Amino acid sequence: MMIARRKLVGSLGVAAGGLLLSGCDRVAGTPAFRSFVEGTDGLTIDFTRLVSKRDALAREYTLTDLSPVFRANGTRVPAAPEYQSLMANKFADFRLRIDGLVRQPLSLSLAQLRSLPVRTQITRHDCVEGWSAIGQWTGTPLSGLMKQAGLMPSARFIVFHCADDYGASKYYESIDLIDAFHPQTILAWGLNGQRLPIQNGAPLRLRVERQLGYKHAKYVMRIEAVASLAQIGAGKGGYWEDSNDYAWYAGI
Amino acid sequence: MATAAEHAINAPLAPGSGSPGIYRHRLATRLWHWSNVVVLIIMLMSGLMIFNAHPRLYWGEYGANSDYAWLEIGPTATGGHLVVAGLDIPTTGILGQWTDANGNQQTRAFPYWATIPSGYNLAGARRWHLSFAWAFAILTIGYLIISAANRHIRRDLLPKKSELAPAHLWQDVKDHLRLRFHPTDGTAHYNILQKLTYGLVLFVLLPGVLLTGLTMSPAFNAAWPWMLDLFGGRQSARSLHFICAAGLVGFILVHLLLVMLAGPINEIRSMITGWLHVRKVEEGSA
């Protein structure tokens, strides 16, 4: 009797496990699951913003904390011909374009960017995969560029268009104005006291220190202020968001 | 009150024996328990998929492929292995190299039957994990508050001084080895090993897994930088998150085993209805 019961409970457990396994993959495709996921995603953004000050700083480390090797991930060298020719000329012909919903579109060379106020910060880069690397970033604060260009009142997001073809489409990312005007949000052109290496995003990469690595767009060519992300790419605000359903908000 | 002359047989009653039961589990405990069955399993399995994206663990603030990993799971030339603190353990077929449901060989750390989603999908696993984390956080914090308010913690979980005496602890270890789990006085108090285990789960592993999880968030690091100091850096928090989760898996396995040994019908019924049937045996009949 007892053994029969144990067998029964055991086989119920196995059955429940199997149901769970095949069930979860099926549940993930349902509209109800989708709205649950999007609801909690919104809750996460709201809660994060509620408990942190608008300008709360990511921790800054010291030179002794640097990772011995700063891991490069994703594109190592963009293959696009336009990028290749810029690279051949050591980015002397590179111009960062800032346009969209701005009063004064800008086109800036690296020398012009470097002549603007500079910020250097030693921060931790957290990849969505789970690893972290600490590096010293030097660059131009995005807030200054945004003020220079003059955002129109309708601008709500800042989109970063990149040089690298990642898979079938160009890499891009986007952030909201809270992160765009955050003091640690910079367009970095230096890493660990050197010119930013190609594999880490030369000539310019975004640092948006309160979010995960995929938001830190490398090879930034153009910055566009927009009212909505719906018209950009597949409309989810970034390459990985469009292609693999990564969350647009990557603070967690 | 039961007297010393009364002995109890620990084998639970068959259902429907009509003996008076003991109200052992309050509604809050039962609701929490069964919610956790769902939520914790989803958290654990989606967590294993997230681990699969980078199956290496480090101590300190940083850690990536060129840094020393104290734990690593991956493929070898011929199979799969787990390397923990320099110890190389072959795990072919289970970890690092295994065959999926379609008969294809895979080299991810945890196999398809242990992860949500079952096929490699970091973004999907994060959707599951970070959504159900809300349910998990609300359940854990809510249960701690309710259990403090209804005196469950003080009355049922807090060990008495006498129970912590080495002789008492040793007696309870011996009782467990003899598969005697229930008190012999006709009550249904938790025994001391049970209290210590539930205490470890409720006050260390569950809050630990929640806090170390939040410490991996760059946004929460900016909001609450003290969390990084509490756990010794982001990668330490990630390691501790994994260790707490492994502790919870260990708890679940031992918990299921003990439920089986203590009499699954009576135990599971008590967790559904609240009532545990305990048979008191007249003197001399034991």
Brief overview, please?
The complex is a heterodimer of chains A (252) and B (286). Helix content of chain A is 31%, strand content 25%. Chain A has 252 residues and is an alpha+beta fold.
Order of helices and strands of chain B: EEHEEEEEEHHHHHHHHEE
Give the oligomeric state: heterodimer
Distance between the termini of chain A: 50 Å
Number of domains of chain A: 2
Basic shape of chain B: globular
The major β-sheet of chain A equals:
5 strands, mixed
**Based on the structure given, which CATH architecture of the largest domain in chain A is correct?**
Alpha-Beta Complex
Strand elements of chain A, count: 10
Q: Portion of residues in helices of chain B?
A: 40-55%
The fourth-level CATH homologous superfamily of the largest domain in chain A is: Oxidoreductase, molybdopterin-binding domain
Class computed from helices, strands and strand pairing of chain B: alpha+beta
Shape of chain A: globular
Main sheet strand line-up of chain B: 3-4-5-6
Domain Oxidoreductase molybdopterin-binding (chain A): 91-226
Protein name (chain A): Molybdopterin-dependent oxidoreductase
Pfam families (chain A): Oxidored_molyb
InterPro entries (chain A): OxRdtase_Mopterin-bd_dom (IPR000572), OxRdtase_Mopterin-bd_sf (IPR036374)
List keywords for this structure.
heterodimer, A: Sulfite Oxidase, Chain A, domain 2, 5-stranded antiparallel beta sheet, 7 helices, 25% strand, B: 286 residues, alpha+beta, 4-stranded antiparallel beta sheet, two-stranded antiparallel ribbon, 10 strands, 10% strand, globular
